[in-house]
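EI: anyone free to look at a 704-residue chain?
SC: sure, send it
EI:
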Amino acid sequence: MHVPKHLDGPLDCAPVIYALTPENHAHAEQELRRHKQRLEAALKATGIGIFEVDARTGAAEVSDSYAAIFGYADSKEMDLSLVGRFSRMHEADRPRVEAAYRELADGRRGEVQMEYRARSADGAFQWFRVDGHVAERDPHGCPTHLIGIIQNIERFRLAQEQARLSQVVFDNTHDGIIITDTDGRILAANPAFTAITGYTAPEVLGQTPRLLKSGRHDAKFYQQMWRSLLRDGAWQGEIWDRKKSGVVYPEWLSISAVGDTDSVTPTHFVATFSDLTEIKTARAQIDHVLRHDPLTGLPNEKTLAELPETRLWGSYSLVLIDIDHFKLINDAHGHDVGDLALVAVAERLRANLCQGELLARHGSDEFIIAGRTPVSDRASALLGLFESPFRVAGTELSLTVSIGGCSYPDDGGDFYTLLYRAESAARAAKSSGRNTFRSYRAPLDAGASRRLSILDGLRRAMHGEGLVLHFQPQVDLGSGAVVGFEALMRWRHPVLGSVSPCEFIPFAEESGTIVALGAWALTNACRQLATWQRSGFAGTIAVNVSSVQIHRGALLEQVFRALTESACDPAGLRLEITESVVLEAPQAVLDMLLALKRLGISLAIDDFGTGYSNLVYLCRLNVDEIKIDRAFVANLSSGEADVAIVRAIIQMANAIGAGVIAEGIENANAADRLAALGCRRGQGYFFGHPVAAEEIPIPKTPSR
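SC: here you go
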């Protein structure tokens, strides 16, 4: 070991007289060596290195602990020359260290303290602190020897940086933070605490969080909180507190116990919290939007369904008000005037509600009133409300209504049963010439019992109960290869058994349950498509889409969710929409269909030729396929007019760049005639019935 010569003397400066005998001299040297060893051990233990520099030559002598600080086993492994010492320093720090050394060696400074980065034995830069001073001077006052100590402060700098960052987080986070001791006295509070509560840090230091109590929680609540905190080391939940202004507000609070690393006993508690006022307000606004009609501001059907049993105890009546010939108002005056008319009707109905009645909008031109006034009395009063005209946008509108009503519990035991029967009664009123009222009676509709069973079953089927998808092959008429499938819903009612789609689909559209059923079909069709695609299938699966799904604006979200959850290739999904949807679609619907195309799926027009097609819309939508209705296919062998229509459809499709598929092909003759006319794809019982996916052998490489 090497210790600079200025440290070679004894620790005690008192004079000692030795007899210069060989024995005394050997003993003195032995004591000096032990002294040096103890000193080196102490220096290493404390992480301090000592150096001595000749101010005239720059040569240095260092302790072994100096080398250990840099990660070397011995100082002999280090280049201790002036150039070597400076070469280890970080280039960003070297100029100021060199300048300080020159000032010390020239006598311009008597001491220096500084921090800098230098390369350690492993090549990494670490932070060091040096304290040096002039130890000896010549008779002229010029420095001859410099001495100092050096320490590795990397861990200290890291801890310092972590503390700085922690302080930055503490000061700048949007969440309020307080730190307390184990007695609950507040030791620190951040600026966000002040912003949220109104209390400044000096106002709360030394106090307990009890000054924030709102009074909404009892002692048991706080006892359970502290029991959980002490048992688990943490607690979080929603709590109500009080601001300095006195305002009570909701917050999300998290409390953590903090202790020494070697102890499980907490030494402090850290609480963070955020004000939930804006979130709760936003949730309330969203809930209001979901539960209210955006045009009239009235509750919607969903909201009304939850209210009668809770607010109208005992029996109550349900009245459905259907505006007669409302479509004519939209056609004659435009949808803007039609919307204003609906608002005017809602305002008149709201202004004339009886005590305790509930009013909601149901459908585009229907309203519902639930109350305790007998059905016939309420309906008579409502008919009278429409005797005077409505003044809307400078136009006088005379409106009449058809009203249907029923009563709880005589006509049904739940809201939706009553709603269905009120709708049935309103249809009877329309059939009787409109501008009148009908009360529900079982004979109004001979099939009411079956339809009611279907209605109840459809609400359960919205969650997939009894539903299954069958797939009918679509083939290339030239090669006979399967190029795709159409997904078709099949439903088994728990009581009625198998119900034909021709019966339950229109009913689902009328009741609105088709939105949920359509979402189910899209989800499961995409899952099946993904399964087949992983097996090499490169064709398409076509899914029928109801106009109700489109006009209610749910389709884009449903398709996006189905594609995302299944991870199928969107190019394999084809949506079939009816010709009437395109013909009557407002701009918003057309924009949505174009957005669907941008997802990568394809669009087909179903039942083409049965309506009055808008060719401009077909071109704008860039339709991928036109489906020839089965009515034209059935008469190809005998009806020349149908042949001409099919030929015209094919020619038109070619002109706009769309493919053609014919449905309802029952025999080889029809398939051959269609192929001869230029139709490339076909579908029908001749090629296969709709069957479950498990029964279909999927071709590996069909062409699209």
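EI: The chain has a mean pLDDT of 84.
SC: 👍
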